[in-house]
Design brief:
Distance between the termini: 36 Å
Region (Disordered): 120-149
Largest sheet: 3 strands, antiparallel
Structural class: alpha+beta
Number of strands: 5
Strand order of the largest sheet: 1-2-3
Number of domains: 2
Keywords: Heme, Iron, Metal-binding, Oxidoreductase, Peroxidase
GO molecular function: heme binding; metal ion binding; peroxidase activity
Cofactor: heme b
Radius of gyration: 19 Å
Order of helices and strands: EEEEEHHHHH
GO cellular component, one term: cytosol
């Protein structure tokens, strides 16, 4: 028996992860499958995702039934969302002059993830959320972290997006 539980809710082809940030923004586009990939993320070859294709280093040892299949991993995470939110908000912080403690906390949260809760990347909009940018798939991934200052003003090296994007 398989026990599947909904861990995120779908809202018109977008997913809001349990910590309240838009998710599914940077999914890869596959060469030969995606006719009009949005700018930004690198295109990936099908053999990176499909078993048994050219470039699959284990193709010779895979069973026949796995040809052109892929793998899916489920990970069960216990996330104490309200407790985490409380931890981040107590005490509110002054991160920059001119920002309220609440805005400072929101900016700190965005720097931890690399995106604002709307999905807008802080590499493009480092000081405030831009929901219009987030809603535009032609723009919300069109960045490369190039030209980043040594002080990581726009997107810290430890941000989630830096660890998962390339």
């Amino acid at each position: 028996m398989v026990d599947l539980r909904l861990v995120a809710c779908s809202i018109s082809n977008t997913v809001i992860a349990s910590f309240g940030f838009l998710d599914g923004v940077s999914n890869p586009s596959v060469i030969g499958f995606d006719a009009n990939p949005p700018p930004g993320p690198k295109l990936v070859r099908a053999d990176v995702l499909l078993a048994g294709e050219e470039g699959d280093s284990r193709a010779a040892t895979r069973p026949d039934w796995s040809k052109d299949g892929t793998f899916l991993v489920f990970q069960y995470l216990l996330q104490l969302v309200p407790e985490f939110a409380d931890f981040l908000r107590k005490p509110p912080i002054i991160i920059m002059p001119g920002l309220s403690p609440e805005d400072g906390s929101e900016l700190r949260d965005a720097k931890m993830v690399g995106r604002w809760k709307s999905g807008a990347p802080i590499d493009i909009t480092p000081l405030k959320d831009d929901p219009e940018l987030a809603a535009d798939p032609q723009k919300n991934n069109d960045f490369s972290f190039e030209g980043e200052r040594d002080d990581q003003f726009r997107c810290p090296f430890a941000a989630h997006i830096r660890k998962s994007r390339d």
